[in-house]
Amino acid sequence: MAETSEEVAVLVQRVVKDITNAFRRNPHIDEIGLIPCPEARYNRSPIVLVENKLGVESWCVKFLLPYVHNKLLLYRTRKQWLNKDELIDVTCTLLLLNPDFTTAWNVRKELILSGTLSPIKDLHLGKLALTKFPKSPETWIHRRWVLQQLSQETSLPSSVAKGNLGTVPAERTQRILQEEMEVCGEAAGRYPSNYNAWSHRIWVLQNVAKLDLKILLDELSSTKHWASMHVSDHSGFHYRQFLLKSLISQTAMDTSALQQNSLKDEPKDEEAAASTEEPRIDLTQLLEEEVEFCTDLIDSYPGHETLWCHRRHIFYLQHHLSGRCPLNLTHLSPADCSGGTLNDLHLIPASPQLSQAMEVDGLNDSSKQGYSQETKRLKRTPAPDSLGLEMEHRFIDQVLSTCRNVEQARYANAYRKWLVTLSQ
Amino acid sequence: MKLYSLSVLYKGDPKAVLLKAAYDVSSFSFFQRSSVQEFMTFTSQLIVERSTKGSRASVKEQEYLCHVYVRSDSLAGVVIADSEYPSRVAFTLLEKVLDEFSKQVDRIDWPVGSPDTIQYTALDGHLSRYQNPREADPMSKVQAELDETKIILHNTMESLLERGEKLDDLVSKSEVLGTQSKAFYKTARKQNSCCAIM
């Protein structure tokens, strides 16, 4: 069925209108999807709205996408004007079909800056795009820009606070935070080891929540069940490692800040006094609980390398704590994310130490164990306590004697070798 | 860690007969769900047809693992799970379900049964409960009597097929799959290459 360019234009305009109307009719649309449908049914719109799900029949995409894509580029190159509403509709359609089209996001940035487009609406579009494209890098990157805008716009009190003392995140921040955690959680569920989603989650904790201790603790407990049901999700477990590392570093900062404050002879007002009653965090206990959690999962689900990697990280954090050596924050960075940094992180230096700490990793070839970087750092630190090592060796023995899973045995042996290198 | 489908079939000659099935497609995008469900039916039948009586196997296809148990009396069960779900629990579940089914449904009904005629309602409950393997099967930490080495492992569906048989052909000829599902299969095949916008 050959379409003339006029027919295509008419069709596309109709489809774009249908999409806009669908959103107007149902503001609660929470998911988009493509419906495999090779041929159009006579005179029926390819836009399908069922419950709160918006579907696009696949036959129309080959007409729709190039047309709106071209339309936006003509606007961008100043060959054809589009008014604000047209821009919103066109970019919306485009991004629901291909959210990695950076230009469309950039047009929306301009609309936000000129006050035509509400940042919240824009975040909603991103959330929808992520239901179909949970990894989309451009969507996550753009999202961070919008969140930055929001925080500048309202100049949230948390951005002025010194450290985490006396910070009670404003209600709006809390809502934004909740929403971001939800969006990340959903995206993580839609694609295994969704690095982009989890990295975004980390960024939000660093830049929106400012690594608030209570929030870190909440996240640790609220993601526990998810982790236990996704035992090969390396990014999910890496998130827990980040939480624990941050709890360690933030507690240390609090302690030193507290010490500094007590040196000054300032009268403490009510708020400051109350804030010193920060949640008492027993780091040793938290780490022990994490080891127990890890052990439990290793026993229940043999043969998942992620769990063994997680164990190494926790062990490292534990002996690091007990070693009582001065905290070197580069060790505590999420630098073991292979694949490099979030390119846009430099836009907002969160706390100075953390932004420096995002090293680009992964340029070395990964060793068989993949921990050469960590091992080199570990060799510089004091030897781990022998009791901890002994317990780990006993655990390995127990696993090896009872497991029948070939991979489990391999990971257990690799872990033993790694432990041995620590004490060399 | 997810279970997507649990089915009971009869390994007839030459076709496998679906007797009862339970599905959980909630984790798939809304518009894919009916196609995914049809595919799981198609896959379950195909696997049972290509497995011998008295065997257990795990067939890997992309990120899914299909666990099949065909009893020597031709009663068969298939569990389709993701790759995290512990296979030992999957086989425990299959054993349990087939045992229960054979006690509740007369053998004479097996060769000619269908989901509409078969009186067995426990499947949905089992599927739902076993979504959390530790809750459903707390003893799974203890070594099961089942010898894991007797489970045949297939790395692809293709390895189940006869020489010259193509999965694409079986899909297009299938009566179980609707046109939308077949279209879905075609685009999914294409998607395995990068840069697909659809």
TrEMBL record, chain A:
Residues 364-373 have a biased composition (Polar residues). Residues 263-281 have a biased composition (Basic and acidic residues). Transmembrane segments: none annotated. Residues 259-281, 363-384 are annotated as: Disordered. This is Protein prenyltransferase alpha subunit repeat-containing protein 1. InterPro entries: Prenyl_trans_a (IPR002088). It comes from the Eukaryota. Coiled coil: none annotated. Belongs to the protein prenyltransferase subunit alpha family. The gene is Ptar1. Keywords: Prenyltransferase, Repeat, Transferase.
From TrEMBL, chain B:
It is a lipid-anchor. One of its GO terms (molecular function) is SNAP receptor activity. The keyword Transferase applies. Keywords: Coiled coil, Cytoplasm, Cytoplasmic vesicle, ER-Golgi transport, Golgi apparatus, Lipoprotein, Membrane, Methylation, Palmitate, Prenylation, Protein transport, Transferase, Transport. Residues 8-131 form the Longin domain. Residues 138-198 form the V-SNARE coiled-coil homology domain. SMART domains: Longin (SM01270). It is found in: Cytoplasm, Cytosol; Cytoplasmic vesicle membrane; Golgi apparatus membrane. One of its GO terms (cellular component) is cytosol. SUPFAM superfamilies: SNARE fusion complex, SNARE-like. GO terms for biological process: endoplasmic reticulum to Golgi vesicle-mediated transport; protein transport. Identified in 2 different SNARE complexes; the first one composed of GOSR1, GOSR2 and STX5 and the second one composed of BET1L, GOSR1 and STX5. PANTHER family: SYNAPTOBREVIN HOMOLOG YKT6. Belongs to the synaptobrevin family. Vesicular soluble NSF attachment protein receptor (v-SNARE) mediating vesicle docking and fusion to a specific acceptor cellular compartment. Functions in endoplasmic reticulum to Golgi transport; as part of a SNARE complex composed of GOSR1, GOSR2 and STX5. Functions in early/recycling endosome to TGN transport; as part of a SNARE complex composed of BET1L, GOSR1 and STX5. Has a S-palmitoyl transferase activity. This is Synaptobrevin homolog YKT6.
